Amino acid sequence: MKNTTACLKIFSTLILLASLFYIIIAPSFYTSPRIHQNLHLQSQHHFDFCPSNYTNHCPCQDPIRQRRFPKAKMFRKERHCPQSTTERLRCLIPIPPGYQTPFPWPKSKDTAWFSNVPFPKLVEYKKSQNWVRLEGDHFVFPGGGTSFPEGVKAYVNALKRLLPVPLESGDVRTVLDVGCGVASFGASLMDYGILTMSLAPSDEHQSQVQFALERGLPAILGVLSIHRLTFPSRSFDMVHCSRCLVPWTDYDGLYLREIDRILRPGGFWVLSGPPINWRVNYKAWETEPHELKKEQNTLEDLAMQLCWEKVAERDQIAVWQKHIDHISCMQKLKTRRSPKFCNSSESDPDAGWYTKMTACIFPLPDVKDVHEVSGGVLEKWPMRLETVPPRVRNENDDGFTLKTYIEDNQTWKRRVSNYGVLLKSLSSGKYRNVMDMNAGFGGFAAAIVKYPVWVMNVVPFDVKSNNLGIIYERGLIGTYMDWCEPFSTYPRTYDLIHASGVFSMYMDKCDITDILLEMHRILRPKGAVIVRDHGDVILKVKEITDRIRWKGIVVAGDQDGPFHPEMIMVINNDD
């Protein structure tokens, strides 16, 4: 039986290789000279490069398109993507003059080439706050910030004294930094094994997110406006805002309620700057004390409605902790104004793709007593990565999800090991910013964590199994996405893009040419792409990547069954 299975696998592999030879190579031998000439001319029809003013183009954050939308609630800064094929660019984003390969990690955390992000405006605008300095041909990030007058390390040390758990403990793993600047806060937390998603809109602080990604730090363009953030409920161990200019008390606390949605039970909300400790700071802020007092009182009342308990306030920093359940909190609030809970008609709490915010509180999963954590207890990092997430354990499907999850992990460990052979530089530290376009359970990211990389786990919003919440419970990060639209990032921000099953998923939804052009936009010039898909899909993809001037090598996929039709295309632009 074993010999029969082995023979079938070999036979299947030979069929795949023969098919590949016939489709890609055979035409050069068996077509007539005229047909061969036509094929050659067609393959030479490459995409042109866009004009130079598109060098830093973000299609969904285009400033010209943004002007069509109102400024109220920062709606202008939300995603506004091209709505028709005529609006989509069908050209390749050019690199800026003098572009150089970014510094390797961890040097990139402190240094970036000016030619790669040629924006001196932030240096001048934030000169007194020491966000970033220009020294000759490169930027230096000294760790300053609006709320970091003594540097980010001193700020983090002050925060450590206020938190009830040590940052070194592994209790805090996933953090969202709202209004991140150049992501110095997230860079500093890296020293504690903490993964921070830095979030900022495209605004007058030119290219904050682009600076963050150039440094090798996780970041995404986004804003608190009308729609929810692109994350599932109960995602983050901590959410941080340091003078992020979000009107937390406006619109019946709409934005604070959104933070509550994505904050894990027992998680922390950290706010520094106005109105915190206003009695001491109002003169420095040049603001009337009664205004700050009113704002902080409203903030405290909203936090109480959300079942958050203030654990510390000192200098300009305050820390709240979300209750581990809603039972004990409701008992304390029974004599006060009852908080407004969302009902079932106000959508799934995990929905995060063009879903409008509502000024209500999503109820936490039920618990049996006040000592139980809603949704389940998470292990400390790094044990969290190897432990079955609560969302998998709690599935009532006779263990089907658990079995699938375990098999998925084993599969991706084997596949990533194979990637190390196909991409020799994977283990050398050449890649830092990695994207998985169809992350599933996050198995690829979990298997690649042994390398000095971080992974943006992307989950298409309309997949049958929405596992982004599971990915966050593993101590990883990611976002929802529709690959028929461009991604919320700047050009040249990822070193390695992994696309497993993406093109077969979108083949009938939109033109896959636009997806590949978007991949070209966000990939660094010497970056790499791995595409896994059905053989016929891979061949269609390769026709387009040839026109992009990418040299793809196609190999048979690992054989998960005797007739498994999968193939892999590897594009290594450093060759």
UniProtKB/TrEMBL annotation:
Q: Which Gene3D superfamilies match?
A: Vaccinia Virus protein VP39
Respond yes or no to whether keyword Nucleotide-binding is given for this record: no
Where, per UniProt, does this protein localize?
A: Endomembrane system; Membrane
Enumerate the InterPro entries for this protein.
Put_SAM_MeTrfase, SAM-dependent_MTases_sf
Q: How does it sit in the membrane?
A: Single-pass membrane protein; Single-pass type II membrane protein
Which enzyme type, at the first EC level? transferase
The membrane-spanning stretches of this chain are 7-30
Pfam families attached here? Methyltransf_29 (PF03141)
Keywords of the record, alphabetical order, are: Glycoprotein, Membrane, Methyltransferase, Signal-anchor, Transferase, Transmembrane, Transmembrane helix
Q: Name one GO cellular component term.
A: trans-Golgi network
Is the keyword Iron assigned to this protein? no
- State the EC number(s): 2.1.1.-
One GO MF annotation is: methyltransferase activity
One GO BP annotation of this record: methylation
Family that this chain belongs to: Belongs to the methyltransferase superfamily.
The protein here is known as: Methyltransferase
